[in-house]
Amino acid sequence: MIEDMKKVGLEDVSDAPEEKALTVVEAREKTVRDKFWTKFKSVMGSLPFARDLLAVYYCAMDSGTPLRVRATLLGALVYFIMPLDVLPDFIALLGFTDDATVLFAVIRTMQANLKPEHYEKADDALSAAQDEKDAEQT
What we know:
Layout: H1 2-7, H2 16-43, H3 50-61, H4 67-81, H5 97-110, H6 116-137
């Protein structure tokens, strides 16, 4: 019966959830790859959680991270990137409160997947971004 379904273009429904999840992860990853660094660099000076945010980014981009974890982390990163959210980022002192809440909830839930190398990459990226910012000011 499954073979008959495949002949007419219908796939085994047991495969659909995984394929759909992969499509969602791919879409989130594309959004993050396209927009993360621009947003991050524009606000990094006002982010007290920049290191954690970058560690989440590197964990989400790590092919060794389980799919469900990547999907969750990418969702949090997409929320950070979104121009409109619960508290718009331009509101002084409060703007990143919702982003921080989402990020820390994800970190707490997924912390076993955040490895020291993700934080090392975050530290390197922060240092490089700061050097770039300093070079632009001189």
